UniProtKB/TrEMBL annotation, chains A, B:
Gene3D superfamilies: 3.40.50.2300, lambda repressor-like DNA-binding domains
UniProt cross-references to InterPro entries, sorted A to Z: Cro/C1-type_HTH, HTH_LacI, LacI/GalR-like_sensor, Lambda_DNA-bd_dom_sf, Peripla_BP_I
Pfam families linked to this entry: LacI, Peripla_BP_3
PROSITE patterns for this protein: HTH_CROC1, HTH_LACI_1, HTH_LACI_2
Domain of life: Bacteria
Single GO MF annotation: transcription cis-regulatory region binding
Protein name: LacI family transcriptional regulator
Keyword Lyase among UniProt keywords: no
Residue stretches making up the HTH lacI-type domain: 2-56
DNA sequence: TAGTTTTTCCAAAACGTTTCGGATTTTGCG
DNA sequence: CGCAAAATCCGAAACGTTTTGGAAAAACTA
């Protein structure tokens, strides 16, 4: 592999000059620059980023730390779309992204900052991490620039991008209320997700503003899992036959809920209205098509990457909140009379 | 950031000894090893992989070069599942994966080997690349270990993993033949994909073995795109009303075909049987559910990663061919009598 | 005890870059 | 022409590791 030294020798100049020529410094004459460039091309030279990173103390690499890359999470395009957004922005810069994964054995062995420091990443994007994850406290303490997705933590080194979860959930529930529903349940995620808390708040706000009493036992956790949601929904609708509508904190759970309803012989939307959250790919393909709160996952990734690069260039950490949109499809209908 | 030198100073030994202690060499006494380990932990040391990679001439990094990370390709879980498989295997090793993307502006600027050499990746996995991609010739010429997905090129430095495309396609067509279909069309991908050629061959073999004449004008290319397939199918079924079944080289195209059929007032499977290829997530969710040839995309990625790491450890490049499986759902039925 | 082996340690070179400080050459100007 | 200024170049140090080839110390052996 040809190095800067080879070029220097071939061109009869010093390595300093080669380096400065290649990097476009002004203190090298056009003639020698041309010669160096030619030789570099001819020798098929490519710079060694390792060496460069070592001396410059920046790797031009960002870490992408996601949790949703498991075999079982394939139904959930969320992670992939976010990744695509990140990748899309990064592709336009001179950074590369290196993929870390939580929930691997590696995580147990290495701490967050170890991971990052070993690879000398310049910054990190974190997605899908739970609020009780040991990594999270490290993020705040660490001095590595970082942007979080859907986790509202901020400092001068960490920013985040999220969506207006409270408002999104509120719109969903208001939609059900407008359809005449008064017996509304909620399938939430789990206690270790900020979005769960926020969506629950949206649920409360909508109900309270409409003066509809809230039944606490109608609010259950499905752990953001299709299977868990199905089981919980089965119990729920078995016990409480008054419920005419349910708001789910994720589309995946909504699918589980619909399965449970089918098993119980309840029709969607005739007997029970279902609304989801996320607008995953499947939402528009299942039957009946799922009414849901759409969030632009691609853009979340894109904005996160954009913010991180901004931060690496000296700007300060920000907060970006994207709008959600209620997409009404076929899984919600007016409440039955009587 | 604490370095090996800091530890050496604190422990009153040389950097050599620290290095050898940390890396488990035998020529350092247990007493000093213990002392060094303690100090390392206390100083919160993590090794600088950049420096290590530089001197060891290996980065413990593999490149993952995929093409399907675009905003529009989100429907196609193929890429994501392959990536998940790769990630899953790599997570068990001490390698990390760095994400490159083709079809970016970067590709036009940098050649394949430039990309790889700059980041000094130890090996590469390539997915979704066309046969006329300039990168491909480079792969063969380059001396970087590499495993290709669905591209049958092999040398001592490059292996590949694929599925039995000929046989898979054959099974799909035989399924149609067994249902009594004789007027069978095919929606192929494009001429720059090996799988297209192989699936076409499977189509031919099945038809010829059954002594069913092949209508060349019933074989069209949909470019692996839903929209393109829809347009082509519209023309096709408009012109040739004899066709009772169509085999599609991808599920995404099958979706497009089904849209076209709907537009034309043709029912699936009553009027026309449709079979796809891939078994993407949507296949089982669309209505009617798609009969298709399933390939284990996760495993493809997993095997690819496994082979690459094997190669990096001195073993030679291999060829892995995974089995496919015909999944009969609702989009195929017996041909209408009369 | 003296010699030999084994154990434990270390100095220095190397990896491929960037950059600091200064040296050399060329140019401009009166 | 002579001198100052500008343009062009370079040596050497630095980044944080690993590794080579021995040296020093400790342990064993006869």
């Amino acid at each position: 592999m040809t190095t800067i030294k080879d070029i220097a020798k071939a061109a009869g100049v010093s390595v300093t000059t080669v380096s400065r020529a290649l990097n476009g410094y002004s203190d090298v004459s056009e003639k020698t620059r041309k010669k160096i460039m030619d030789i570099a091309k001819q020798l098929n030279y490519s710079p060694n980023t390792l060496a460069r990173s070592l001396v410059m103390n920046k790797s031009k690499t960002i870490g992408l730390l996601v949790s949703g890359m498991t075999r079982s999470a394939v139904k959930d395009n969320f992670t992939f779309e976010v990744m695509t957004g990140v990748n899309d922005y990064i592709a336009k810069t001179d950074y590369d992204v290196i993929l870390f994964n939580t929930n691997s054995t590696k995580q147990r062995e290495k701490t967050y900052s170890q991971l990052c420091r070993e690879r000398r990443v310049d910054g990190v994007i974190l997605q899908g991490i739970k609020t009780d994850d040991p990594y999270l406290t490290e993020v705040v303490e660490s001095d590595i620039p970082c942007v979080l997705i859907d986790i509202p933590i901020q400092s001068d080194r960490v920013g985040y991008v999220t969506t207006d979860n409270v408002h999104g959930a509120k719109k969903a529930v208001q939609h059900l209320l407008e359809l005449g529903h008064r017996h509304i349940a909620m399938m939430n995620g789990h206690d270790y997700a900020f979005v769960s808390k926020q969506r629950l708040q949206g649920f409360y706000e909508a109900m309270e503003e409409a003066n509809v009493p809230i039944q606490k036992e109608w609010i259950v956790n499905g752990d953001f899992s299709e299977e868990m949601a199905e089981a919980r929904a089965y119990e729920l609708f078995m016990k409480h036959q008054h419920i005419t509508a349910i708001f789910c904190a994720s589309d995946l759970m909504a699918l589980g809920v619909m399965k449970a309803l089918k098993q119980l012989g309840l029709r969607v939307p005739e007997d029970v209205s279902v609304v989801g959250y996320d607008d995953i790919l499947l939402a528009s393909y299942v039957s009946p098509a799922l009414t849901t709160v759409a969030q632009n996952k691609f853009q979340m990734g894109y904005e996160a990457a954009s913010m991180l690069i901004d931060m690496l260039e000296g700007n300060e950490a920000k907060v970006v909140t994207l709008r959600t949109q209620l997409v009404v499809r076929e899984s919600t209908a007016e409440v039955k009379k009587g």
